[in-house]
Every structure is written in structure tokens, then in C-alpha cells.
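Q: What would this chain look like folded?
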Amino acid sequence: MEKTSVIIPRIETPEHRPLWQQLLSQGIRSSQELLALLEIDSAQLAIQPPCGDFPLRVPLGFANRMARGDSRDPLLLQVLPTAAESAQPPGYQRDPLGELHAMPVPGLLHRYRGRALLTVTGACAIHCRYCFRRHFPYSAAGAVNGNLQSSLDYLGQQPDIHEIILSGGDPLTLSDARLQSLTEKLAAIPQLHTLRIHTRLPVVLPERVDTGLLAWIDRQSLRVVIVVHCNHPNEIDSSVMTALQQLRSAGVTLLNQSVLLHGVNDDAATLISLSEALFAAGVLPYYLHLLDKVQGAAHFAVSQETAKRLLAALRASLPGYLVPRLVRDIPGQPGKTPV
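A: My prediction, written as C-alpha cells:
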């Protein structure tokens, strides 16, 4: 796609920080603050303090998309810690995908042929309670703190790896300067030709898509694919639409992956509306994941039988290119397992 000029201004604070960094630092950090904003009595909910290594975090702009007075709002349910997280049913683990056993060097996951994944940061703009990396030891197993060079050396010795995936955490929490430094090193590896970024920021903090980020994209010699993460159509407001359309106009291939979540998006009408809203913003649905069995998230699980019925309803209502692939991630498999 031909790149076009961008129109989102790069607004800076008096501290000469981009607007998105200021908003990131001002995110909501407590259940009480969030529920007060939403005019919800905490007595309606079985609230519990979040575990120490995975506290509540949500950008104010995302919280403002939640319905006032609705304790079952689908965006709220994704981020609010509740007593259900204390349940420990069998089969739910701290490392449900066995990622710590798929790292040839700290911070680099090499699970699938032809591509590898760098966990470049543990930081996120939002803490989704179903996150499969909510217990991930980023300080010891991230591509930071001196581990990056060993990852680059490994990639340079693997001629069959052509795509590098930046993940985390959320890689777009890194500054433009840090992203540029990292991608210059990756672009110097001859066999790499595609840069894929897994991020939630264009959805939860669309201000991240400013002229600085778009200029960084324009400088890339690698093909850029961005896989955003959006679970419900209410997450897409006009600011998100603008951010996504600007990324697409900059020549980025845009895909979306969702997680099927009980009480959030486990009905056909919601999933149909989500696919249509994504397409209007220039994004193609990519994956619909069954929940990864991470400890603390069992209350979000949707049965495989229900998931199949929902997929059939999507196929009956949408053109094929708007039907995401229903998949499960199974450790040791050569790719995502279709359901």
C-alpha cells in the first residue's frame, strides 16, 4: 500500500515528553479509583487486591469507554481484579504455554519455524486479567538487562528465521528512540525481512500513534505488520479508529487477535460487531483464541463446544475474510492449533 502523509500531531508536555507518555503515567492504579469513576458501588462486586506482581492498571481513556453504573461492563470485566482470581482449578498454570522452556537465550522465544519472538519489555499500558504472561519473570527472562546481544547473536545464526516478533509486555511502551535502536540492530540481520509487533496500545492508548511513531515506521527497511488486540467493539471509539487508519495509511499491515472471554464477548452479536468495527478501521480479524490456562483466569474460560457454535454463527453472517481463525495454543505444537 502506498504511504500517505499523517495528520496526528505530536503533542508534548511541558516536560518535553510526548502526550502518550504523560497519559501512560497517569493511568488508573486502583480498583477504588476505577469504580468511583464509573459510579459503581464496590459492595456489588467481590473485589480483591490484585496480586503483587500483576496490579490493576488501565488508561483513563479506556476507562472512559466503560458504561457508568454497569458492574458487568465488558471492558471493566477485562481489567478489574476479583475474588475469582483466587480459584485454582486443575490444569491452570503460571506458564501455560511452556514459554520458559522454549527460550534458547533469555528473552527470545523460538517455538515456531521461520519466526521468533522477543520479549522486549514487561511494561503494558493495561493489565488484562486473563493475560497469559501475568506471571512471566521479565527481569530474568526478558530481552533486556544485557540479554539483547545474545538474542541478536542467536538470530544471526538461524538462517531459517525470517520474521521477528516484538512482544512483551507491550513493545510500543518503548520510546521511539529505543524502538529505533532495536530495529536498526534487527535490520542488520540479513535473513530477517518482516517485523511483527504485538500491541494493545493503539486500542487502549491511541495517542501512542503520533508523528514520532509513524516516522519510525516510515524509516523501517523491514516489512511492518502490527497485530493489535481488541476483544469487544466498545473498545473502538473515534480516537482508536483514527489511530488504526493512520497506521494503515503508513503502509502497515493490520491484523487483530482476540481472546474469547466469558461475560465479555462470548456471544455471536458481539463478535460480529467486533469484526465489522475492525474492518471499518482498516484491520482484518486474524485469531480468536480460546483462553490460555493461566493461573488466575479460569473464570474467563469458554468451552470449546460454545466456541464452535459461535464460529458457525460468524460464518453464517460474515464474509470469510471477516471470520477470525478459532485457535488454541498448545505447547510443543508447530503452530496455533485450529479448533
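Residues 93-338 form a domain with the TIM Barrel fold (CATH 3.20.20.70).
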